[in-house]
Design brief:
11 helices, four-stranded mixed beta sheet, Glutaredoxin, alpha+beta
């Protein structure tokens, strides 16, 4: 990881899709300013590799009640932004085809096109991005090498890049998506879009001091971190 502003995004999360779309609309060079890092619920093999690296997965499955709330909240937010939403039904979801496919697309210099294809397939058309055949067909139709991109799922080199991304998420304590890190400040969720935009614009007009914003919090407050959050598991995304 670098000092460049970065964000953790997920093809799984409607909040990630809406937040990035909104920021890219409002800040024309947003995608060039940020280091994009994919985040996903990994398969069993990737989880084992994470454990071997001493990394766990902060993002956990949410309750049914919370999931139902998010379904309604997503529809409300999408309508408010004026975005079309076709809610996908995830049966036996597997996120490696999209996440690892994006990493391969980044190597090929077409990650932005791949990102748009996947989000359109998932959120505009409500199709199953866990199925490599669905993504391959969509990539082929858009002029991208679908078979090569989907081969990333079984490419040991790409899987190693994916592991590093998830280890980085563990190090950055990513508990929900999207998560933005700008000049040491962390912003979580679609409701922080305005704050992220302001922080990015502010970077151009002042020097970096390298300070940790937590250093300015009272010690007594820091001592209680983790003591009062008894919400259901889940990263709201």
């Amino acid at each position: 990881m670098t000092d460049r502003p970065r964000l953790y995004f997920s093809f799984q999360s409607p909040f990630s899709w809406m937040a990035l779309r909104r920021l890219e609309e409002r800040v024309p060079d947003f995608a060039n300013r940020f280091e994009y890092v994919p985040f996903w619920d990994p398969d069993a093999r990737m989880r084992a590799d994470l454990a071997a690296r001493g990394a766990d997965f902060h993002y956990t499955v949410m309750s049914k009640a919370k999931h139902l709330y998010i379904l309604h909240d997503t529809k409300r937010l999408a309508a408010g932004f004026g975005y079309r939403l076709a809610w996908p039904v995830d049966v036996a979801p597997r996120w490696e085809p999209s996440a690892l496919g994006w990493l391969r697309a980044r190597e090929m210099g077409c990650e932005r096109r791949f990102y748009r294809i996947v989000t359109e397939v998932r959120w505009d058309r409500g199709e199953n991005i866990s199925d490599p055949a669905v993504l391959q067909a969509a990539c082929d139709a858009a002029g991208l090498p679908g078979a090569e991109l989907m081969a990333a799922v079984d490419d040991e080199r790409i899987r190693a890049l994916g592991l590093e991304a998830l280890v980085g998420a563990h190090r950055d304590e990513v508990f929900g998506i999207p998560l933005f890190i700008v000049d040491g400040q962390r912003f979580w969720g679609v409701d922080r879009v305005a704050d992220v935009e302001a922080a990015v614009r502010d970077l151009g007009g002042r020097p970096r001091d390298g300070a940790n914003p937590l250093d300015r919090l009272p010690l007594a407050a820091l001592a209680t971190v983790g003591s009062f959050d008894h919400d259901e598991p889940g990263g709201c995304g």
